[in-house]
């Protein structure tokens, strides 16, 4: 099954972009090649750019606090494990405090590193980090892989409170949605959303063997999915046949 996610607001859209970047970063850092660590630094700078949004940190803190309040309401429910509930609330408290105690925006401490900022200013220029443009950076790339990893670990240390809070929040959000099987008649599906309830994320799972791409649109009143298939040149065209998929709405 191939998973597609569709955010209903700009805040969740930004969080999903950050999650995507953090996943890339955690894959690149353990590798040995200099080119992998180059793109790890590219990713660090992208994270800093995305995380620079003024209200992102407060959005994550607000949502964590909201989830905590909801979970506290389950205390005393005989159908809920108190131990599991306490564990999740403890994780929220820990993530909230770590992020709340971090001064400024994610990666802000790195802006004081002139060497890193010189790389950042050149990295968006095609070929702008060649050895003759940034000889000190080229020399760093010749260091042993473990030495480069240690440097990267030190530089990205200030990003982890944001990552941990983000991972926890998105896990709680995703867990709130219950998937159900639906059918796109003639390749199209629409669902009216109930009033009085705000959804933040749509999750759609398609059978990989169908080789289909969903075009998803939605707002607070309705969600629409149109199934497409790419031709030999990669252009998407309407599928036009019935197909089933799993849909979950997360609030």
* Residues in helices, as a percent range: 40-55%
Query: What kind of oligomer do you see?
Result: single chain
Mass-distribution shape: globular
Query: What separation lies between the terminal Cα atoms?
Result: 23 Å
Q: Total strand count, please? A: 8
Mean pLDDT level: 90
Query: What integer value in Å does the Rg equal?
Result: 22 Å
- The string of secondary-structure elements, in order, is EHHHHHHHHEEEEEEE
Beta content comes to 15-25%
Overall structural class, as computed from helix and strand content, comes to alpha+beta
Task: Please list the strands of the largest sheet in the order they lie side by side.
Answer: 1-4-8-2
Total helices: the number is 8
- Unreliable segments of 5+ consecutive residues: none
Query: How is the biggest beta sheet arranged?
Result: 4 strands, antiparallel
Question: Care to describe what's here?
Answer:
This protein is of the alpha+beta class. 47% of the residues lie in helices and 19% in strands. It starts with a strand and ends with a strand. The mean pLDDT is 90.
How are the elements arranged and paired?
Layout: E1 2-7, H1 10-28, H2 34-51, H3 56-72, H4 82-100, H5 114-123, H6 135-141, H7 145-156, H8 160-175, E2 180-184, E3 188-192, E4 201-206, E5 213-218, E6 222-230, E7 236-238, E8 243-250
């Amino acid at each position: 099954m191939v998973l597609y996610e569709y955010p209903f607001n700009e805040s969740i859209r930004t969080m999903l972009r950050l999650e995507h970047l953090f996943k890339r970063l955690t894959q690149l850092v353990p590798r040995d090649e200099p080119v992998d660590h180059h793109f790890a630094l590219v990713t660090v700078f992208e994270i800093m750019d995305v995380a620079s949004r003024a209200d992102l940190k407060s959005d994550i803190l607000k949502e964590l606090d909201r989830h905590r309040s909801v979970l506290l309401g389950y205390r005393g429910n005989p159908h809920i494990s108190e131990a599991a509930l306490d564990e999740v609330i403890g994780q929220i408290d820990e993530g909230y405090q770590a992020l709340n105690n971090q001064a400024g925006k994610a990666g802000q401490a790195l802006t004081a590193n002139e060497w890193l900022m010189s790389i950042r200013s050149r990295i968006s220029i095609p070929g702008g980090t060649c050895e003759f443009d940034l000889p000190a950076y080229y020399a760093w790339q010749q260091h042993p892989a473990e030495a480069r990893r240690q440097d990267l670990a030190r530089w990205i240390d200030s990003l982890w409170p944001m990552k941990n809070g983000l991972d926890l929040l998105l896990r709680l959000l995703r867990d709130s949605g219950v998937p159900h099987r639906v059918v796109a008649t003639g390749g199209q599906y629409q669902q009216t959303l109930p009033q009085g309830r705000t959804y933040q994320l749509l999750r759609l799972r398609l059978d990989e063997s169908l080789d289909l791409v969903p075009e998803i649109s939605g707002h607070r009143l309705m969600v629409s999915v149109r199934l497409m298939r790419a031709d030999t040149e990669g252009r998407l065209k309407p599928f036009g046949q019935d197909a089933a998929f799993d849909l979950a709405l997360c609030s």
